[in-house]
Specification:
Blueprint (H helix, E strand, L loop, with lengths): L20 H8 L3 E5 L2 E4 L1 H20 L3 E2 L5 E3 H7 L1 H4 L5 E4 L5 E4 L4 H11 L8 E10 L14 E11 L2 H21 L4 E5 L9 E8 L5 E6 L17 H12 L3 E3 L5 H4 L7 E16 L1 H6 L2 E3 L5 E3 L1 E8 H11 L1 E2 L2 E2 L10 E5 L5 H16 L4 E4 L5 H11 L3 E5 L1 H5 L3 E5 L5 E4 L1 H11 L6
Parallel strand pairs: 3-7, 19-20, 19-21
Antiparallel strand pairs: 1-2, 4-6, 5-6, 7-8, 8-16, 9-10, 10-13, 11-12, 11-13, 13-16, 14-15, 17-18, 21-22, 22-23
Helix pairs in contact: 1-10, 2-6, 2-10, 6-7, 11-14
Bound molecules: '5'-O-(N-(L-prolyl)-sulfamoyl)adenosine.
Amino acid sequence: MRLSRYFLPVLKETPAEAQIVSHRLMLRAGMIKQASAGIYSWLPLGYKVLRNIEQIVHEEQVRAGHIPMLMPTLQSADLWRESGRYDDYGQEMLRITDRHGRDMLYGPTNEELITDIFRSHVGSYKDLPLTLYHIQWKFRDEIRPRFGVMRGREFLMKDGYNFDLTKEDALHAYNRHLVSYLRTYERMGLQAIPMRADSGPIGGDDTHEFLVLAETGESEVFYDSEITDLKFGDRAIDYDSVEQCQAVLEEFTSRYARTDETHDVAEFAKVPEERRRTARGIEVGQIFYFGTKYSDAMGATVADAEGNKVPVHMGSHGIGVSRLLGAIIEASHDDNGIIWPEGVTPFHCGIVNLKQGDNEADAACDALYASLTALGLEPLYDDRSERAGAKFATMDLIGLPWRITVGPRGLKNGVVELTSRRTGESEELPPEQAIARIATIYGKATA
Ligand code: P5A
């Protein structure tokens, strides 16, 4: 993409309404614009990152054996009356009446809708296990929407639902989600720690929240510092293996890690003092096992091997897709702007032309652009007639992890400059080598 043809409405001034750094940077980098309280338009740069995050979530869900689908945002109130949550959900639920006077709602979550789909189409234990998921907008009329996309009213969530014959099977689905979430967040450059939590209006006893440690996090958390040394990495896991998923669960949840809702002072005191940490965290996901709560209420049964009708065991699992943009920025920025992890960056690298209109510089930039594009990479070429300082400031603000700077002086010596956004380190090298380096970083083969 050529910046002169893109839509990147960066702000010079720091917006006064934004209280935390991720919100400020998302507004300044022209990623989002508030449409009304807690509701945002996703401008091109923000939309690109949102799509990249979605893509990682999809890939890891499918890898774990979960099946994508799409349910609507608007739901009928009748299903929620069946589960009893129409009244329980209270003012957070946005209620709508259609022209026929029917009660509808903008879904805050989809346990009821998916249970209705399940009971309509599945009747036998032979069709289990089954995990369906979608990535869809949700609405919760939060009393205090704040911090931009962190606590929105309209927000994008990955929500998945497992259906199993027995509690044991459903607990495997729970563990499988835990494992897949560890991988998902690491691919986004995040360390998200699973912590014992409270199930709130979703219900159930077993639940973990995934928290990214950050000073601006809304939850107070207590944990054993050994947890932050754990890394999931690139392990090959067989998601069907009960033992393998169980082993990961034990490794990542055996140490003390709880949100304030479940914090137990006496238990925490057993952690050696030098390892006891109190911090703040951003909740980027939560997994639940709630047994037959919805299947009992809504009559979602299957015939077991003996032909008896039994209610299915269920759980649900959510990832805050739009919130993740804020969480990633909170975890990865400096005074000059965002620093995107390679896994989610909106463009793979920037190209800065120091002397727009100079034949040689223009030709070198065009050639770099063409080569990178041919490798399947997406560069953002700043081809505006701006001062070098202004171009660098824009690149730093929007946070592309790599920048190639091209100018007449370097070209005389046959080199361009490759700069890492994270370390600020620069290196002069011939254009072909700069291309090869970027290609290697993103796992693309050069000819
Ligand atoms: C699990 C999936 C559920 O709703 N039902 C379906 C379960 N869980 S949850 O914890 O309530 O939400 C899942 C994740 O969604 C994000 N989230 C939000 N993001 C932005 N703004 C909000 N107002 C908001 N509320 C929830 C969180 O990341 C949460 O973990």
